[in-house]
Each structure stands twice: as structure tokens, then as C-alpha cells.
Amino acid sequence: MSGARHNGPSNAKNNALYGLLGLPLAFVAMPLYVVLPAHYGQTLGVSLGALGAVLLLTRLADALIDPLLGRWVDHLLAHAGQRRLAVLAAAVVLALGFVALFFPPMAWAPMRHQGALLAWCALTLVVTFLAYSLLSVAHLAWGTRLGGDVGQRARLVAWREGFGLFGVLAANVLATQAGMAWTSAVLASTLLLGVWALLRGPAPAGTT
Asked: What is the pLDDT of residue 5?
């Protein structure tokens, strides 16, 4: 039996273990793209024009970094120890970056100035996007390496996208109704749960 077939998702449990990480990865996008501008513009008083420039530049930086992350992930997935450490570290950094982004240290005097807030926003956005991209690329590449026939792959993607859809809906409700403190707590919890499930599920083929 080949490594890909042996490691491929063969039942609903394995599909769910792999797919669960899709929930927090979809969950995080809505607050970043929808809530963040209003939070910094209305709550913190930052110029929307300047904030838009920061968002554009950080997304461009993220786009340039993604190909490098893809090459690194190819290496990581082939080594079990490095793979586990990388996805866990990325999840922790993503959760911390998200919290830092939405809760800047306003008690620190320089943070009361718009320039400092914009710099804080840019820095924490870069960290958050970097961790998000690494975890997303690793999750997608992990799935492609699980092998299986067309039906197995389709079921695997369906579980991942199903969890992702639930994550989008949950983020919309929490971010608009419960506030960013609850949103951050749910994100951190589901990230750690998703990584735990991923590491408990089937391993990619070709692991050393």
C-alpha cells in the first residue's frame, strides 16, 4: 500500500480532524477586513485615508512573502517535528497578533498619537498576516499530501470548507454583537483546537 493511500483520510473522523482548522482560518478574515477599519477609524480616531494606505502596503508585503512561505512549507511538511512546531507557533503568533492589533496599549503615552497608532497597526498587521499565511498555506498543502482517490479528496475539501463557512458566520455574529474581546477569545480557542485536531489526524505522505 502506498504512503499516500495509507495516510489518506478514510473516514469522517479523519476528515473532521483535518478540516477543523478551516474554521478559525476563515473566522479571522472577517474582523481583519470589515471590523478593523471601523475600529481604528471610529474608536481610536485614526484617519481612514492613512489607515487605508497601511492596509494596502501590508497586504502587498504579504503577497510578496507568500511564495517564500510556500517553499518553506514544502520543507516543513516533510519533517514531522518541524511541521508540528511550525503550525503550533503560527497559531500562537496569529492569536497574539490579532489581540495586539485590536487592543493597542493605550496606557502607553506615545500610543495616544495617530502616527504611533498607525505604526502599531502596521506592525501587528504584518505579524498577523504572516502567521495567517503560514498556517493557511500549511493547511492547504497538508490536505493535498494526504492522498486518496477523487472521492476522498472531495470529502476532505468539503469538510474543510464546511468548517470555514461556519467560521465566517460565527465571526460575523461575534464581531458585531459580542465585541472584540469575545471574538479574540473564540479565535484563540478555535486556533489551538484546530491545530490539536490537525496534529491528531492523518499525516502527510512522505513524512520523515
From this structure: 39
Calculate ∠ Cα 105-110-113, nearest 5°.
100
Which domain does 131 fall in, by range? 15-200
Q: What is the predicted pLDDT for the residue at 37?
A: 87
- Kindly state the percentage of the chain with pLDDT values over 90: 43
Task: Give kind and range of the element (H or E) at residue 91.
Answer: helix 80-102
Measured distance CA(60)–CA(51) in Å, rounded: 14
Q: Domain containing 174 — which CATH number?
A: 1.20.1250.20
* Burial annotation 69-108 (CB, 10 A radius, 16+ → b, else e): beeebeebbeeeeebeebbbebbebbbbbbbbbbebeeee
